[in-house]
Amino acid sequence: MFRGVADGDARAVESVARYVLRFACVALVVCASLASVPPVAGDRADTGAAATPHHGPHVVAVFPDPVADGDTGEYVVVDPADGSNLSLSDGETRVSVPPDGPVALSATPNATRNLVDVPVAAADLWLGNGGEQLVLRRNGTAVDRVAYETTEEGERLNATTGRWTPRGLTPREPVATGSATATAFVLPDAPGVPLETLRGADRRILLAGYTFASARVADALLSAVDRGVRVRVLLDGGPIGGMTTRQREQLDRLAAGGVDVRLLDGPHARFSYHHPKYAVADGEALVLTENWKPAGTGGRSSRGWGVRIDSSRTADALASVFEHDAEGPDAIRWRDRRQNATFVEADPASGSYDAAFEPSSVDVERVRVLTAPGNAGGGMRRAIAAANDSVDVISPRLDPSGPYFESLVAAAERGVEVRILLSNAWYDRESNRALVDRVEQLRDRGLPIEARIARPSGRFEKVHAKGAVIDGRTVLLGSLNWNRHSARENREVVVALYGDEPASYYGRTFEADWAAAAGGGAGAVADWRVHATLAAGGLAAVVLAGFVLRQTVEFDIGLETE
User: Fold this and answer.
1) Four-point Cα dihedral 269, 266, 275, 436, nearest 10
2) pLDDT at position 394, please?
3) How far is CA 175 from CA 45, 88, 308, 407, 493, in A?
4) Are 24 and 543 within 8 A, CB to CB?
5) Is the pLDDT of residue 268 over 70?
6) Does residue 406 have a pLDDT over 50?
7) Rounded-to-integer distance, Cα 90 and Cα 104, Å
8) pLDDT of residue 136
9) What is the model's pTM?
10) Which of 439, 183, 424, 223 is nearest to 314 (CA)?
11) Residue 541: how many CB atoms within 10 A of its CB?
12) Among the listed residues 270, 259, 258, 83, the one whose alpha carbon sits nearest the alpha carbon of residue 167
């Protein structure tokens, strides 16, 4: 597929972008003010290809293969950009394009009107599922071209990016929601925060997750229904490893108690996985790295990060995401999904851990809501690219051939101190050991980068958090696993928190886990700000000779397996 009259193949552009030679450079580092704030993350949507701005007539989207008999409802959306004397041709038929737009051209306009939010014009244009070339002309001269070789049933071609997306999926822009007071917390130390958030709701609860198996959370939701709160739950319908009998039990309870429970599933699902972990409770937004089950929000296993943001603007931003996802054709009610579902037995986590970090009220200077697909992946990488002094990352795993690790290496090449803390889980052991070895090679060549595998030391069972602290001023926290598949194919939610106070809180927890990973013990909590500043100031320059060739490849899905 390609975009533009003489632009060539957009896939070739993407391919070139994936294979680059990076010159090593001398990076001069000085102690920068810890009050500096990087550019706002997520300024543009992640499209997977370079988007071309349009100032004239152009094709917006093509939907050639609806899930309907005879492809009823297929269409092409054209933006005339106030142009006149326009026509669209598929090589066999030429149809006129109305000058007022954007407009969807369809041979079955009545069916198409139910699928689009732009005016529909009848046009004798039939699209082939085996490939098509569309040419938009003005006064007989070609002004735009779009071509595709094959189709995906139920998916729409974005003519600007050249990517297919399921109909009903609208990539979102980042949403800046201003300043806020928030409650920062980590798990398993503070499992009470998610519960008290749900218990305090009076009007609405919107809970989104990957899996759900917490009896205590179910109790809180059912109590909310009894108080007259409207409660809705949205989950993934086909998690890795299957749905557990425990999840079946809790969802049965919720549905019987009046909770609207839906699961995203089916052959035309808009996402590979619905993987976010958040809740909206009235005017509060709860964003987590953990699942709604004993191992996660229950505080029985995983090291996780979470934040409750007291901000109606942030809550409304997440409510908009929820409404978009829950009202799609792939959102199946639990009673319908349950009929043909199979379930697996799984014992819930039952660990018990003392709290080393209490929740803390923090003032956040700015909040930004990022989502995937759309903007979260690029926003996170741009935040790393803007780092001046330090980047601390906690993640279950990290692909050494992927774009996130590349971003961290690029930061280290500029003299930024990079630390990566990885999961100790048995199923991540081999890949994480390989990443640590790769980082050691880079460190031996002079880069200020280090990676460790967590040692829980009785404080948690395994690392499951997905977050970062950048320059002591920015926190990234959310569900997105640091790989390309999560950013492009899954529904994910990440928040960027700007300010000294949130960065200080998560920085201290990171420092404790980092020190324990080196055998320093759970009590080895240094002043992480001083640590970052001294490390940056003590590094005068880094010299790395030669070239570095990196190939960007697809990584594993990287979701929870238990």
Assistant:
1) -100
2) 98
3) 12, 36, 17, 23, 12
4) yes
5) yes
6) yes
7) 15
8) 95
9) 0.74
10) 183
11) 11
12) 270
